[in-house]
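WARN retry 2 of 3 for item q-0093 after timeout on previous attempt; input resubmitted unchanged.
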Amino acid sequence: MNIRKLGNRDARRIFLHRHLLSDTPTGPAQGADLLNLIEGLGFVQLDSINTVARAHDLILFARKPRYRPQALKTLYERDGGLFEHWTHDAAVVPMAYYAYWEMRRKRDAATLRKRYRNWHQHDFESQLQNVLDQIREQGPVCSADVGKDEKRSNSGWWDWHPSKTALEYLWRAGALHVVGRDGFQKRYDLTERVLETHLCDPAHAPDDAQTIDWCCSGALDRLGFATHTELAAFWAHITPAEAKQWVTRELALGQLEPIEVIAADGSARSAYARPGIGDDPALLNAPTQRLRVLSPFDPALRDRQRAERLFGFSYRIEMFVPEAKRIYGYYVFPILQGDSIIARVDMKAFRGLDTLVVRALWVEPGTRWGKARQSAFEAELARLIRLAGVSKITYEDGWLR
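OK item q-0093 returned
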């Protein structure tokens, strides 16, 4: 059997196209247009760090520069187009996918009791009914509204008290629904009070087999090609064993084909794709040369090992690395141009000074930083400061490394 080889350039084109990073970023970014963008990505990870902009805002801005944070808040909190739950981390997800989280909620309900009990070293379960009763009587609450007299955890892990832990457990298990955030603090309400009845009833949800099929199929659509482990990791709902069983079945049905993907270093890695990937339209379209600053949590970079294989880009976030041991900086942004990650930049918005400060930029090996790239970088920063909420840009001495 001849196995199709997908060259590195072709693999990058397909991957970037699936991650909505091929076309020149343009167009409206609110309401239905914003929802369509998030559906294309599958979900958007939430993160509170705001050195330039929060991760979810920068993810959306990189694809739609007319995007502004209020549009996401409106779509989520007022229009009900999104819900919040976990994939690999906290994320906002199109409400149309809510039913496919039932298996996740069911599994979380079974596994988190012991995990939370061990982490927080307190009896949060004794507060479950009290928290539900308080919300039923008082309406939506934040963690600060419950358990005000309770002792904090001794574990040091997020300093959760029993009622805060109960809130999180009830949300993860499905009894509560996050209806929005005040700053970055979640507000919880009863799911039955917020969502339509058919969404709240587990009897109307897809069964496990249907959910596994949806997860794997949706992951492959958004990745272009993947191993069974990568399929399982995309939504983080299912196990690698479940994804492997799905792959085996789809191969037998002729719905998948094995391929070899050529890495940036010339090595080959086995993966799976839909039949006919060699005729994918993305192969005929070179990605835009518009330079873009990406969030460290961008979906295209979430799997660091895959990013290194595809793009030859070795990257980690160093915020938890002691300053003296950092190679680059606390929070460094990758820079994409065409089908290559060409540099990384350490910068921060000082809103009190109305200034974005570029501290350092490291050019990737084999990349030339000439006048054209500098001009493209300046144009991107001019767009980015509008999202960051400042109006000026300054460069520290020796910023270009």
